[in-house]
Amino acid sequence: MRTAVFFCLAGCTLQTSTSSSFGPRSSQTQTQTQSDPAATGQNAPDNRDPGGPSRQPPAGLSTEIALSPPPGKNQDGTVAGPGGPIGTAPATCGPARGHCLRGSFFANAGDTGGYSPVFIFDGEFYLWTGQKARQDYAYKSVPATAANLATARQAVVFRPSDENVLYTLPQTEQEALIEGNWANVSIRRDTIDASAGTFEDDSGHKWKFEYSRALLDWIHAK
Q: Rounded to whole angstroms, what are the CA distances from 195 to 22, 39, 62, 162, 166?
């Protein structure tokens, strides 16, 4: 990154221009007169890409859907997720039931190499095991479709504990929220096939919409 400083006569402000080796250099240097306060100081427009989470969840919402009871602490101090005890009975955890995720957000799980469902409690993200998530931001998500995959940041695909199984759905709420692995995958836009209900990642692996969720905006927990 090279930085050049330009000086001008009275009546204009000091400007800096930057040029990057990653893009074309501009041959024009723009200056802004002091007579235009709308474009300077605190009134200056901020067109930068923030490069990170920028949205806040609605106040009091621990997941993307309202759940009762809300999250809280057990008598031993551990954190319990919203909605009461997690179900262990067999269930059809397809897109129509939100993959049995209780409207969870998704956060990077770190060492596991995938993403994990999380909820918000006291302004922080928690895994459904009651442990704090490592990050203070997470993704909103929706069941994958051709339309939302075309604009999603990336996707998560359910993978059960058995690494030899590629295509399946969570069999219980417990597996969806805790025991399974939601692997994060890239989306090759040109491979999204609405008729077949599939898309490919950058490695050429084909994934089904049915077992996938599109990750949308990043949000902070507070």
A: 39, 49, 35, 29, 21
pTM beyond 0.85: no
How many helices and strands, by DSSP H and E, does the chain display? 2, 13
pLDDT of residue 129: 94
Rounded CA separation 20/22 (Å): 5
Rounded to the nearest integer, the mean pLDDT of the chain is: 79
Q: Which two tokens stand for residue 194?
A: 């609405």
User: Around Cβ 106, how many Cβ atoms within 10 Å?
Assistant: 24
Beta-bridged to residue 158, according to DSSP, are 182
**Amino acid present at 96:** A
Distance CA(108)–CA(127), nearest Å, equals 11
Name residue, tokens 């090759």.
Answer: 188
Max Cα-Cα span within the chain: 77
Q: Give, in order, the Cα–Cα distances in Å from 219 to each of 98, 193, 200, 207.
A: 19, 29, 26, 26
| Cα 177 versus chain centre, distance | 17
Domain coordinates in residue numbering, the chain: 2-43, 72-220
**Confidence label for 60 from pLDDT (cuts 50, 70 and 90):** confident
